[in-house]
Structures
1.
Amino acid sequence: MAWSSTWPDGSQSVKANQPTGAANTTYIETHMNKDHFWNISGDKDGHHQFVQMTQQGTPAAPTDAALATAMDGAIFVKAKSTTEAVDSQDAQPFFINNKVVGTPGNTQVMQLLGIRAMGVFDRKTSNGAITLQYSHNCTVARTGTGVYKVTFSSALPSDNYLVLGKCIKYDSDPEQTADFFMSGGTSLTLKNVNNFTFRTNSLGASPTGVDPLQTWFMVFGG
């Protein structure tokens, strides 16, 4: 149902204005309920279900939002520039605020850098089988002693992402540690938009692959 901006119509009677007024009320409820709680209940009314926004500027020329008068912070979306991310100018969330309290116009911008994927898994048995305790946007498979492949449920925009990880060595000696590192190669075959492979080694004079007691990793960017 369409919205009528010429309401009430002063040239018509109250009765004649009623259908248009009812239609406008229905329009408001229909469209506000898309992302707000509107006329639902006293506890929910006036709250957001989610927020949608268009990017600032264009992908070719992303810009930062400007703070309105008397405002101290704002969340907005803009594309990554070619300088920041050569392969992927996708839309990302940012936050702008007053750098100095009480000094409008002196602002700073920070990216709300979300986690693309993450996981925590435990060594299940002595043969290296694992139990995935928690994951986001990925699955994990052991392909050899101390060798693990992470497959993204949804592909990343590019292979230029950051992986951080660590592990706890399976050992009765609390001083024993293990190392988490990405598999090497002459190309990014083992680190791509669909998956990556990492290894866990026992530290020492002769590093060898080990299956840790617990391992965790996080993936940012891309």
2.
Amino acid sequence: MSNNNSRAVLFDYDGVLADTLENHFTAWKRSFSDLEVQISRKDYFPTEGMQLIDFMKLVAKKYGIQKPDYDSILKRKESYFSEDYKFSLFPGVLSLVNKLKKNAIKIAVVTAGHKGRLYNTNPKYFLDKFDFILTGDLVKRGKPYPDPYLKAMATLEVKAESCIVVENASLGIKSAKSAGAYCIAVCSSVGKDLLSEADEIVNKFSDLKETKKIRELIC
């Protein structure tokens, strides 16, 4: 494909590249349990991709946590996550990333997770494959606002119409579409009914290579 350098694929991280969501939910559950609050899967999974402070505020409001210490809640959550997490990519991730790199397609990670956790739980060889990594602490407004993806596009010097975003959550899809990108959703954490705003939906990451948009970039 000609002029590949003007094309980019922007990946969400948790639930798209890495199989982390169960670990995150368990860590959040443990952290809020310390406050005698029992969150459910319905509290976490539909809000996946939300900035961490916004998620904590949502839980605090729902469960009536008085004067929550968000720094402490997050610190405990990240500690619990690190205790249990083992680096695990979804099948097909390395293969696709390597093919995109080989074809000179720009690639980026756009995640709500914080920089410290991302870099502490991923091997350098994997993160070094990406041309840009944007974490939630680098933007004031996170998903569903377009800001994260717009910042990634600006950094990579690509136009929105030349970008494909791969997401797994409603908030991320809204962010990608608001930024003007084509969005493919992966059903790794929620059903297709919550991903309907995406341009395409696939059942699993390894199915991406069968989509027309991705095939154009790797063939």
3.
Amino acid sequence: MPKKRPVLDQSPGASRGSVSEVATGQLGTRELLVMISAIMALMAVGTDLLLPTFDDMRREFGMAPNSNAPSQTITVFFLGLALPQIIYGPFADRFGRKPTLYTGLSLYVLGALGAALAPTFQLMLVSRFVWGLGAAGARVVATAIVRDNFVDEAMAKAMSKIMAVFILVPVFAPALGAGIIAVLPWRGVFWVCIAWTIGIFLWTLRLPETLKAEHVRPLTLTNTLRGIRQVGRTPVTVGYTVASMFLQGVFTTYLASSELIIGDILGRGAQFPFVFGSVAILFGIASLINGRIVGIVGLSNVINRASIVLVVMSMVLLAVALGSGGKPNFWIYMPLLGLTFSTFMFLVPNLNTAALGPVGEIAGTASAVTGAARIASGAIIGTILSSFITVSIIPFAVGMAALCSLSTLTVAVVRHRTANRLVVGAALTS
């Protein structure tokens, strides 16, 4: 008999902190969270490990030394990651989390294999898109499993712990990628990604199905559209998703252009893996702090305050970029950028949690719709904005300041409208 362990009840009527007995096989809470982190890390492994290969990619495919074309391997991956989530979500709500996960893992391996063997850059991009399609299934399942087991602040804490483990991948991936291409052909990084995926498959055999029978939804077009409409008619979900879309645009731009920004514009090409990893360490520290703060001051307060801090920091970065003519001092700009990005960890997981809170009964579909919107918009913004980043950091700084401001404005609008509804509701019931 599978051993039963207590997890927070996800049912709509459960009070915060209530406990239900859910079969989790041999998994404890800690192993479950680490496993989810490893699943989510498939996305980071599929992007960050490739960054040190961009110079080799330019040489093999006959590109200019400062070409930003390799950044397309990142944005195309994110497009693939975004689009199928609306399909994966209903699939996960009908057939369960594990079948959906294994479908995604299969496509992930197929895409990585195609990239490893692609003879042209165009076929490389096609393979990267398929690779992203596979990563999408893993992402939807990971978020849905967390929502199956945790609610409200408990979910925010769980997501923060997951992100703290997940962030170890960006810390070490560029250095690992550089190490791989130092001893193997640069396409060796793709084979490492395949090995990681096979390891995930074997590990998740221990994971039981977390979708409750009463939450299984028929897989019909009508039912799927009904779920999508429910998400679209939930103002809090829409508002916080839009706010996260702007932040995703900033993050995707940085990820796609980081090798060019740090290596060429700031002149630290040899130290790129370590600089990139140092910024990622700040992400991890902020994520751990966020998990503690959310439980003390509440989800909404953290979102509201972090949004204001983010706008201020992005404006400071813009001033530094403009004041230096687009080529700021490395020791001034990168620490400020790292601190600014660490603020993202007080927003992105919390915005996702707040967006899913009102639609927990359709966690798979809701996670898919919001994730697809966020990542697709981020990929589009990243593709456009990164194309302007060649010899100056000003386009990045301007875009970052504008997008962070739009995100904060959206959060303020959601907060204002939510407060108004509460006031009206109290007046009607008095």
